[in-house]
Amino acid sequence: MRDFDTTIRETAGLIETALDQFLPRRSGPLGRVVDAMRHGALDGGKRLRPFLLIAAADMFDCPRTRSVRAGCAIEMIHCYSLIHDDLPAMDDSDLRRGRPSVHKAFDDATAILAGDALLTEAFEILAHRDTHPNAEVRCRLALELARGAGKDGMVGGQMIDIYAEQKSFDLAGIEELQRLKTGALIRFSAMAGGVIGEGSEADIAALTSYAEDLGLAFQIVDDLLDAFGAAEELGKPVGQDADMDKATFVKLLGAEGARDQARRLIEECKAHLDRFGPRAEPLKGAADFVFNRKN
Amino acid sequence: MRDFDTTIRETAGLIETALDQFLPRRSGPLGRVVDAMRHGALDGGKRLRPFLLIAAADMFDCPRTRSVRAGCAIEMIHCYSLIHDDLPAMDDSDLRRGRPSVHKAFDDATAILAGDALLTEAFEILAHRDTHPNAEVRCRLALELARGAGKDGMVGGQMIDIYAEQKSFDLAGIEELQRLKTGALIRFSAMAGGVIGEGSEADIAALTSYAEDLGLAFQIVDDLLDAFGAAEELGKPVGQDADMDKATFVKLLGAEGARDQARRLIEECKAHLDRFGPRAEPLKGAADFVFNRKN
Q1: Residue B98: burial class (beta carbons within 10 Å; 0-12, 13-18, 19+)
Q2: How confident is the model at residue B248 (pLDDT cuts 50, 70, 90)?
Q3: What is the pLDDT of residue A166?
Q4: Number of domains in chain A
Q5: Residue A48: closest CA among A6, A7, A12
Q6: Residue A157: C-alpha distances to residues A184, B108, B268 (Å)
Q7: Whole-angstrom Cα distance, residue B204 to residue B201?
Q8: Residue A173 above 90 pLDDT?
Q9: How far apart are CA B178 and CA B59, in angstroms?
Q10: What residues contact A79, with CB distance under 8 A and at least 6 apart?
Q11: DSSP assignment of A232-256, as one string?
Q12: Whole-number percent of chain B with pLDDT over 90
């Protein structure tokens, strides 16, 4: 675990530096939207999605200059979704990672525009020649990211989520919600590492399967953390979702059932990586990290 | 003019049909975001931006299947910007083209997500092989659209616009605002027709110059219509901008000065098309249409 912590921190540092360079400060009113983009995108969390992309691309000896660019694109999509999610019209969250959310630090209009601009910038980065010399690769990245982020992916999942609070879902329903809302971007992240690394279609399919299982495990652990706090403290309720009568994996499977299911998915997702041998250790470490994470 | 009216109505019909096919109705909560996207994108206005793209591409005998797809992408960007602009946090407009705006017909959260999804879908369309067999062309379209729509284009212009209401701009300032807020997408539209038609770089540069002059004329006419209603009724105030102490071309140049300036720009933009000979008639018709439009 110690080794993995160092690895993910190192790639998070690369992403932080690159995001900072993609978003140079400006003066005047134009500078305000850039400041809001920076507020929403910099000093981020562990940068799990870029890590998955970079670690997958590393297996194919893809130059980091390329994979870090694509990692910034996925992180901009992730951060735009958080900015819009936090708006009063959506989840109405004043805090994000312990700091004021973008609409609190600026205002609602600026937060809407900053999210729009990050979303747009992600595609500008992917379409640019510096991301990969082969335009077919760049188009495939942009196409898959759009599919993962749009109405049949993340945005569709957020739409379902808004309505899921009002009625109870069965397990199939909650899995479908997860597959769209959080799964689609995680799926893209690992798959895109195979695409930008020009792996074979079989390699890309294995990475996709890995990420699908990982994404589901991620959401189950999220529900456990929401309900009980850190995993070793099972039984100590801290979360809000249960209060809101929202269907979660914990509610539907019970705490032990949910944890067993997450453990099973982590084993399965790692098995998909066997074809890559020891090169897959960082991605296997990411799976253990997802299972053991405390927040 | 009669011929041009028929031409632009015909391409608007092609765009309407294609948008309808890109956004098939769905059931359940996912269907709600699609319904909101359809509300914001269908039954649209004259589809000027797609017209510019298609008419420019026609000059190079580009198959309509391709140019209509790219036209849908630009129209999705335009419509997403209207949906987000109309939100209470932005312009707070309850009506759009005589119908309830998306957030009134649905709710704010749905409008935010529908806008996000249209923005994302635009890039999905451009990145898809059906838009052009050459991936370099697709990437260039996506790159230029992102530049025109993002923080250094339309979104940046909207950010400036929010703050421009609070202080008065000089002519250079208002031209810069226009260049970003409405000009960047109009510029992209004509230029993209040259890119997708695989015109020469000189052809693309001429189309870009045409669109830059056209976009500025468009905004000046917009200000005139806001201030005085239809052009032949100069002197009859109907608009709101003057009340809000907002800098406009009319305020800075006077009504006659603004009209002269628009007329000059229309002549200049048409001159950029001389290299294309009679094939450029539809684009020249678009310029006259922009100057003579009544709404």
Answers
A1: exposed
A2: confident
A3: 52
A4: 1
A5: A12
A6: 9, 17, 49
A7: 5
A8: no
A9: 28
A10: A40, A41, A44, A118
A11: GGTT----STTTTT---HHHHHHHH
A12: 79
Nearest to B189 by CA among B163, B220, B160, B210: B210
Residue B230 confidence (pLDDT)? 55
CB contact under 8 A, A156 and B30: yes
Between A121-125, A166-170, A182-186, B22-26, the lowest mean confidence (pLDDT) is in A166-170
Predicted confidence band of residue A195 (pLDDT cuts 50, 70, 90)? very high
pLDDT tens digits for A60-77?
999 999 999 999 999 999
Using the predicted structure, report yes or no on whether residue A87 has a pLDDT greater than 90: yes
How remote is the C-alpha of A186 from its chain's centroid? 5
B83 chain-A contacts, CB cut-off 8 A: none
User: In the prediction, which pLDDT does A237 show?
Assistant: 46
> Which of residues 88 through 147 in chain B touch A, CB cutoff 8 A?
89-90, 107-110, 112-113, 115-117, 119-121, 123-124, 126-129, 134-136, 138-140, 142-143, 145-147
Chain B residues closer than 8 Å to A115 by CB: 116
Q: Domain range for residue B193?
A: 2-292
With beta carbons less than 8 A apart as the criterion, state whether B53 and B74 touch.
Answer: yes
* Nearest to A217, CA basis, from A170, A253, A164, A178: A178
CB contact under 8 A, A116 and B116: yes
| Per-residue pLDDT tens over the stretch B111-146 | 999 999 999 999 999 999 999 999 999 999 999 999
Interface test with A, best of B27, B90, B113, B174 (most A CBs within 10 A): B113
**Cβ–Cβ < 8 Å for A81, B100:** no
Which of B152, B150, B112, B122 has its CA nearest to residue A119?
Answer: B150
Average confidence (pLDDT) over B279-291: 96
CB-based contact B73:A142 (threshold 8 Å):
no
Smallest Cα distance from A124 to chain B, Å? 5
How far apart, in whole angstroms, are the C-alpha atoms of residue B90 and residue A95?
Answer: 22
Residue A144 has pLDDT above 90, yes or no: yes
Q: What is the CATH number of the domain that holds A46?
A: 1.10.600.10
Q: How far apart are CA A99 and CA B239, in angstroms?
A: 42
- pLDDT above 80 for A218: yes
pLDDT confidence band for B231 (50 / 70 / 90): very low
**DSSP run (H or E) holding A5:** helix A2-22
Q: Any chain A CB within 8 A of the CB of B155?
A: yes
Ranges of H-type helices in chain B = 2-22, 28-41, 48-58, 64-85, 102-105, 108-127, 135-149, 154-164, 171-178, 184-196, 201-228, 249-253, 255-271, 281-292
Q: Does the ipTM surpass 0.90? A: yes
Asked if A112 contacts A87 with a C-beta cutoff of 8 angstroms, the reply is yes
Q: What is d(CA B33, CA A18) in angstroms, rounded to the nearest whole number? A: 33
Q: Which residues contact A229 (CB under 8 A, 6 or more apart)?
A: A236, A238, A239
Mark yes or no for CB contact A127/B117 under 8 Å.
Answer: no
Per-residue tokens: A254: 């019970």
From chain A, the residues in CB contact with B130 under 8 A are: none
- Torsions phi, psi for A100 (to 5 deg): -60, 140
Nearest chain A residue to B157, by CA = A30
